[in-house]
């Protein structure tokens, strides 16, 4: 019976660590994308670039909020 509990604990840790790894990697990648797009929008002044910043920025905020509120963190 101890091996069943140990296997479940290992599975729980694997899921938690895997979820945390994905949220962190996606958040860091999106931060770089949003910063680059914001710089491009500031220099070009085109509304398309401003819309791109808003779209990717919203995805960044959603990902950040889910990563903070999830039990993986």
UniProtKB/TrEMBL annotation:
Where this protein primarily resides, as one coarse class?
membrane
Subcellular localization(s) per the UniProt record = Cell inner membrane
Gene Ontology molecular function terms on file: electron transfer activity; heme binding; metal ion binding; oxidoreductase activity, acting on diphenols and related substances as donors, oxygen as acceptor
Source organism superkingdom:
Bacteria
Mark the transmembrane ranges: 20-43
Entry annotated with the keyword Lyase: no
Instruction: Kindly state which keywords UniProt assigns to this record, in alphabetical order.
Output: Cell inner membrane, Cell membrane, Electron transport, Heme, Iron, Membrane, Metal-binding, Transmembrane, Transmembrane helix, Transport
The record's listing under InterPro entries reads: Cyt-d_ubiquinol_oxidase_su_1
Give the way it sits in the membrane: Multi-pass membrane protein
- Give an example GO biological process: aerobic electron transport chain
Which Gene Ontology terms of cellular component type are present?
Answer: cytochrome complex; plasma membrane
Q: Which Pfam families match?
A: Cyt_bd_oxida_I (PF01654)
Q: What's this protein's family per the entry?
A: Belongs to the cytochrome ubiquinol oxidase subunit 1 family.
Q: What is this protein called?
A: Cytochrome ubiquinol oxidase subunit I
């Amino acid at each position: 019976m101890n091996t069943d509990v140990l296997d479940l604990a290992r599975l729980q840790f694997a899921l938690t660590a895997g979820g945390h790894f994905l949220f962190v990697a996606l958040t860091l990648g999106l931060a770089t994308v949003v910063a680059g797009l914001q710089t491009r929008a500031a220099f070009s002044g085109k509304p398309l670039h401003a819309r791109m910043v808003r779209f990717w920025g919203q995805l960044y905020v959603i990902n950040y909020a889910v990563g903070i509120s999830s039990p993986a963190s």
